[in-house]
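Figure-free illustration: sequence to structure, shown twice.
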Amino acid sequence: MNKVNKFMNDCVSTFHSYYNFGNNITEKKLKFCKPAVEKFIFTKLDNSLYKLYLRKFKKENSKFIAKQTKIKNELTILNIMDYLEVIMIFKIDTREVQRTRG
């Protein structure tokens, strides 16, 4: 990841050195250079990075999914809201939810 960040910073520096002619229009557009380079590079690497992170955090993801499944299967809607510490004004009427589910 450090190498990817260094490569992106090098690309941005190169764009700045080649296209910074000191004119206002160019300077205004160069501020968009870094986000554009990041988007381009990460779009190309997205699939590979996603697979790497899935592998790296496999144990944490499985714990999260197990906990999520347990919450969905074992708790009522009101209990889930309590568990997630949803404040009272945001809690929904569970009778209405049960009618739409049922």
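We now fold a second protein in the same way, so the two outputs can be compared directly.
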Amino acid sequence: MHRHLALIATVVFTAAPALALDMPMRKAGLWELKMSFEGRNLPVQVMKHCTDAATDKLMNANFGGSVEQACSKQDVTKTGTGFVIDAVCKFGEMTTTSHSVVSGSFDSAYKIETSSTRQGGPQIPGMPAGTATKMTIDAKWLGACPAGQKPGDVTMANGMTMNVLDIQKMRPPAPGR
């Protein structure tokens, strides 16, 4: 379970600098996210995320505030097909320098391609500190969320479900709070 929690947290915190900015809200419903790491001995991770406008807005506000406080650099450039984000962020003892390209439509399918380096912090399986990591998240809208799933729920390929708002509650408070 800790490995899956770490994976979900990795997705949230790695993608947070890209997603927490003034990005369009995703279409409400069930999104399939396929996360792959180039040059790592990790299989493609597939998750299904149930979302609605309120959950997306809350996630952006909650993670966005953390990202803004944690990032000494966060340059965003709007392009014809999306956004380019260059960021340097510190989360605890970990500093991440990243370049992300976000493209597509938040109504049907989008892609986040991130190249980053990480210094310090706890060891993440398959991701040694100090080495470049290339991660791609391919997201596509599948339709309405299934019965029994609530906005914020992320279901892993093994069937384990966790709500991203619960992950946010587990984070340590920001300095000065």
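Summary for the second example: The longest helix spans residues 2-19.
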